[in-house]
């Protein structure tokens, strides 16, 4: 068993403690909804007996993914994504020293002996023997956030209430639900709901964002609008 295998085994065991969740390819995953898959991704990147722990919440709506693939001919990204470090003050279960990210080590004592970290870095380090309760807390925080900030009662409710409303604790730029790729995905969500005006407003110079917009992607969506509008008029759906 490698370090990665050991961590993955712990994740699989923790997943069994939560109804409808399993662990697949570095993420806790819930497929209980017909229309949307829920993820608590862990941000693993294994190297030299350690890995970062950078949890994020992902939602992947199947119709949004299909629309993205129809337009761009490539694997779709998230429909909604929230990084734990943005909402760290709202987390209830994870140890406070890990809420903005940390590192898991195969042998923390050895790592500290070979390359003594700063006191701040040391606070964010955990040994593999300490991982199980932390993973459990990641899941508890992830599920709590999903249940509080997303309306999972129906697909219609979910899409109409995107983007989720939450407080960011990393400055005015932290709430980035209409920035960059997230802005692109929100345009697709609105199109799924039959709103073809939102993207035109969002694409205009009058709509201000903090970061530059993904204009190439937006223009590709706009080019597809005539076909999407025609399909929606004929069938009531763009997919």
List the helices and strands and how they pair.
Elements: H1 3-15, E1 21-24, E2 27-30, E3 36-41, E4 50-53, E5 56-61, H2 62-72, E6 80-83, E7 102-105, H3 108-114, H4 119-123, E8 125-127, H5 131-149, H6 155-160, H7 180-192, H8 198-203, H9 215-235
Parallel strand pairs: 7-8
Antiparallel strand pairs: 1-2, 2-3, 3-5, 4-7, 5-6
Helix pairs in contact: 1-5, 2-7, 7-9
Please characterize this protein's 3D structure:
With 239 residues, the protein is α+β, with helices and mostly antiparallel strands. Strands 1-2-3-5-6 form a five-stranded antiparallel sheet. The protein has a three-stranded mixed sheet with strand order 4-7-8. The protein has two domains: 3-174, no CATH class; 178-230, no CATH class. The protein is 42% helix and 15% strand. The protein has helices spanning 3-15, 62-72, 108-114, 119-123, 131-149, 155-160, 180-192, 198-203, 215-235, and strands at 21-24, 27-30, 36-41, 50-53, 56-61, 80-83, 102-105, 125-127.
